[in-house]
Backbone:
């Protein structure tokens, strides 16, 4: 029972760190912590065979989102 | 038992919403929107809508990628 | 046998050792896999960290690595036992292929973590301890201070190079 509260606390703390960090690229590792914590919350809220599919879909989607944001930021900085 | 977790995801949604309103840079806005979407997921899962959760998890990054195309075109 | 907080801390230490060892062994701190990872590494170095540690932080952010494999394998063992963990390894491999990554580190991490978590559940640990422990492990690496964690990874990378030869 402590496990899910711990994940929720870590998610809120990481969200506060994302907001207070000024640099755009250094925000992304903190956002990665949020996506780990939310994946854990998804699995701990509703254990079942299909839940692992939902958790993996959320995690891969969130990683792809971070990847796209970082790649576009790097490409946009190099071109001019 | 789920009240504390739901309160935490509500805090996530509020933080993401406030940051998305206040940020100026488009990439910062997109990261804040990602926090907002991350906060929505525990509410969907808590009701047991797993199919809705999978569909949202696949649609949200695609919408972000399409928005990023617009960002790059404006920036260069 | 142990209380739940003590079990979570032991599980966090095991997960940390598992995923950092596999990530360093598969040469993640050597270079950025995609250009986004390189950008994150350069920003971390600009903030006072180390470049090789920054490469590993960027690679963890921009593709599912052994850390994601450990988390999803623990989730799979919690939901469906040993087959769930192996199914999670397959999902991690698909996710790696989506993110333009060869996928050795993630799949290996998921399979080793499956057997680790399944073995520890036979010894009296619960799979939930490993899920929370993995969140704590990734939090210590990426959530507290990028400067110190990147320097720590750079030190581990030097030790790995000294043991196994230069890349």
Residues:
């Amino acid at each position: 029972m402590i496990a899910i509260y711990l994940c929720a606390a870590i998610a809120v703390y990481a969200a506060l760190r994302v907001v207070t960090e000024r640099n755009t690229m250094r925000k992304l590792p903190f956002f990665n912590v949020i996506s780990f914590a939310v994946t854990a919350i998804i699995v701990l809220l509703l254990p079942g065979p299909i839940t692992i599919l939902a958790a993996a879909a959320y995690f891969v989607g969130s990683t792809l989102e971070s990847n796209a944001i970082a790649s576009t930021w790097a490409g946009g900085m190099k071109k001019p | 038992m789920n009240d504390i977790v739901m309160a935490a995801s509500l805090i996530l949604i509020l933080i993401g919403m406030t940051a998305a309103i206040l940020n100026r840079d488009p990439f910062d806005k997109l990261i804040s929107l990602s926090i907002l979407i991350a906060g929505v997921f525990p509410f969907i899962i808590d009701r047991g809508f797993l199919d809705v959760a999978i569909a949202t998890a696949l649609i949200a990054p695609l919408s972000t990628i399409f928005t990023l195309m617009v960002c790059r075109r404006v920036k260069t | 046998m142990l209380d739940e907080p003590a079990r979570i801390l032991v599980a966090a230490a095991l997960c940390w050792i598992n995923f950092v060892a596999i990530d360093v062994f598969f040469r993640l701190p050597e270079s950025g896999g995609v250009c986004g990872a390189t950008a994150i590494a350069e920003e971390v170095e600009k903030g006072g960290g180390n470049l090789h540690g920054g490469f590993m932080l960027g690679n963890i952010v921009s593709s599912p690595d052994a850390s994601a494999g450990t988390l999803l394998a623990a989730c799979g063992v919690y939901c469906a036992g040993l087959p769930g963990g192996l199914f999670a390894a397959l999902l991690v491999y698909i996710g790696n292929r989506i993110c333009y990554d060869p996928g050795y580190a993630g799949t290996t991490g998921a399979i080793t973590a499956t057997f680790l978590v399944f073995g520890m559940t036979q010894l009296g640990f619960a799979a939930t301890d490993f899920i929370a422990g993995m969140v704590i492990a990734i939090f210590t690496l990426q959530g507290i201070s990028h400067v110190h964690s990147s320097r720590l990874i750079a030190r581990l990378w030097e030790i790995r190079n000294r043991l196994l030869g230069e890349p």
Summary: The radius of gyration of chain C is 16 Å. Residues 4-164 of chain C form one domain. The mean pLDDT of chain C is 87.
